[in-house]
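Bench notes, afternoon.
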Amino acid sequence: MFDIKISRIVLSLLLSGVVLFVAGCSSPVKSTTQDPNISAIKTVLEHQFTGPNPEFIEGSDNIEKLEQYYEKRYKPYFTEERYNSFIATLAYHYVHVAHNNDKQIKVDKVSVEKDEDTYNFKVTVLYGKEDSGQNSAEVTGRAKFNEEGKITHIQYLNDGELTEKLMN
């Protein structure tokens, strides 16, 4: 009689353990694999909204060094056509304005969400003089990629008046 009770208890515990194990294995778990396009956007935004660093400052007086600076930071992420357009219009803008006004900019947070074939992003940028308190501005925009994972389109929708704030 005593052996039957112990056997039932052991069997009940064993079955409970199996049920918990199976339930745990079948529960939905978010994949830890991140979309490489999201990583690319975050990297580009980090480069664009952080600085000026000594390499940029040195390059601002030497066009060849500046081209190397941009090529290293941006070229791997863009199609050839979009890279040239980005460098000509957007790449240096915020860091250049910060540099000309003796200010620093730095990315605080980046969030990216995919909506069909478009990636919408929001960047919180800290800015100010090195020896003073930091202010922040929120930049929003969107980007698109081709099948090879290269940026084909990037657009800033609102820069939270960051350019004006850097100039004051």
